[in-house]
Target: Basic helix-loop-helix transcription factor scleraxis
Amino acid sequence: MAASSNYILATYAHDSNSSGGGSASGGSGGAAADSEDSQVGGQTAQGSSSGKRRRPPRQKINARERYRTFNVNAAYEALRNLIPTEPINRKLSKIEIIRLAGSYITHLNSTLQTGTDGQPCLLHKYESEGPARRISICTFCLKTK
DNA sequence: TAGGCCATCTGGTCCT
DNA sequence: AGGACCAGATGGCCTA
Model:
């Protein structure tokens, strides 16, 4: 990740102050990289009789979007670092990060409410709802210490 | 090989 | 007008 972050910052800086040229397409990735596609007119263009309608150049916009995505990923990483897992460096997908963060917050809240760290979620649910109709298992309650 | 996950591009919309 | 944000499309990588 570190390498790619440098890459993103570099390409963002580059694309921001240069207008032309370099294809910024990194290794992976999808659609037509910042190419001449940013000037479309031509053949399939809608209508215009005199042809050659130029779209605004996309390089700068694409670079901004990459930089924005980079920041989003940095936030995911920061959030991920707050979630205890076993093993500690286990790879989590983005959706897992969000879901686990939610249940971890719930777990911490239950710990605060009950004043115990021994299966607080179960206890909290019991205290607030009476005898539970459904037993829900909290991942973080099950963790061995 | 199918499915999940991800990065990137792109066009649209909203905001400053 | 330009930037931020978002969602859809696309294609690559990885794993079961």
